[in-house]
Specification:
The chain is an alpha/beta fold. Helix content is 39%, strand content 18%.
């Protein structure tokens, strides 16, 4: 497949569906009027038969792209299963067991896993595990972090005001991301229950933690006996060319939150933090049988098709090419990334928004982040041809946006 815009988006079919959702559903954060119908490889087809190249992976939730045979095979296998969803914390299933085995094979030794519905719930249960273990009240997090929208996770989110306005918070202490100085200034840590961090901040635009910052946090965690929670909801599952972003820093977390590319949420933790039965629970945790089977197939496929290597190799090409574009266009002020997780920072939010909107019109899907950034996160299967096609559109849109401004 290649980009093929047959009618100017949004087409008539898309407009009808957008209108229904806008009228009947709560206001949300749709980036552009894309109504997804189907997909293949790195491409998405909308309801008007326009074909788009996806540089977002649905916010890292489709690591194998679309219509991958490993996923299609699972869907076919379960198409006649009359009990595809069960109350997974009350009844056992083989999918629960298989996914547990798969994910525990790619995390530190002596870990256990608890499956839930989403990334926010993975964070909720991560902080619950820490609270129950330490019996202390305050969590330490970073400015710019995004850990989810449930009230507990939202306390430790600090990205946009609209996320938090008028909502109550748990006890929290915040520091600036990448500020070793603020870590050095921390004095009394006796009431700190846990430290939670994204080593690559997702929603804020793929801000990358410095090694001195992570080393210092890890040192404080170990010396003070404070559990370290690493949020890998967006950065995990091979996105950075390793299974987990923290592996680039030579550390190990005590607790992890995972979701998106796994298809279900998961809280993983060292066995020493294991809470008593009933301390954490979820009606559907372990019960999304199709999603769990797909999650296990995704892990198998990433290993079998060497997609960690591909993420590193294609990510290096993309990063180099974007840095070359930056050198030609002064509206881009920063290019940063690890693997297939790349952030582009622009001089203004208007220029950023224009580029995202006009790229959509031309068939390239991009994702905003922070106030002025674009997130680049294509499927792990991406190849050089798709990179060339996407960057051709991106640079042409960039030129036209500058000329028209």
């Amino acid at each position: 497949m290649r980009i093929d815009i047959r009618v100017e988006p949004p087409g008539s079919n898309a407009r009808k569906i957008v209108s229904i959702i806008d009228n009947l559903c709560a206001k949300s954060t749709f980036t552009y009027p894309l109504v997804i119908h189907d997909g293949e490889g790195c491409y998405i087809r909308d309801v008007d038969d326009n074909i788009y190249l996806d540089f977002t992976s649905n916010i890292c939730s489709t690591p194998l792209g679309y219509s991958h045979q490993a996923v299609i095979s699972v869907l076919k296998e379960y198409s006649n299963n009359g009990a595809h969803k069960i109350a997974g914390q009350d009844f056992y299933s083989i999918e629960h067991a298989k996914l547990a085995e798969k994910i525990l094979s790619i995390v530190p030794n002596n870990f256990k896993v608890f499956f839930i519905n989403s990334g926010a719930e993975a964070v909720e249960n991560a902080i619950k595990v820490a609270y129950r273990y330490t019996k202390k009240s305050v969590g330490l997090s970073c400015i710019g972090a995004f850990h989810g929208r449930t009230l507990g996770a939202l306390t430790f989110t600090y990205s946009k005001q609209v996320h938090k306005k008028d909502y109550p918070e748990l006890p929290v202490k915040r520091i600036r991301f990448n500020s070793v100085e603020e870590l050095d200034e921390l004095k009394d840590l006796s009431n700190i229950s846990f430290i939670i961090i994204e080593v690559i901040q997702g929603e804020s635009g793929y801000n990358i933690a410095s090694k001195p910052f992570i080393d210092k946090i890890h040192k404080i965690s170990k010396e003070q006996g404070i559990p370290l929670i690493v949020d890998e909801v967006q950065s995990g599952m091979g996105r950075t060319g390793r299974w987990w972003a923290y592996q680039h820093y030579g550390i190990e977390p005590d607790i992890m939150s995972v979701a998106k590319g796994l298809q279900v949420g998961a809280t993983l933790y060292n066995k020493r933090f294991d809470p008593e039965a009933g301390a954490i629970s979820s009606t559907w945790g372990g019960g999304h049988r199709i999603d769990m089977a797909i999650g296990a197939a995704i892990i198998d496929t990433i290993e079998r098709e060497h997609l960690l290597d591909n993420a590193r190799d294609m990510g290096a090409i993309l990063l180099k090419r974007f840095k070359e574009i930056k050198d030609r266009f002064d509206v881009i002020v920063d290019v940063r990334g690890i693997g297939l997780m790349i952030g582009l920072e622009f001089v203004t939010s208007k220029i950023r928004d224009d580029i995202i909107h006009n790229s959509f019109k031309r068939g390239l899907l991009l994702l905003p982040g922070g106030s002025k950034a674009i997130r680049i996160a294509p499927p792990l299967i991406i190849g050089k041809d798709e990179i060339d096609e996407g960057l051709y559109v991106f640079e042409d849109v960039l030129k036209r946006s500058i000329l028209s401004s």
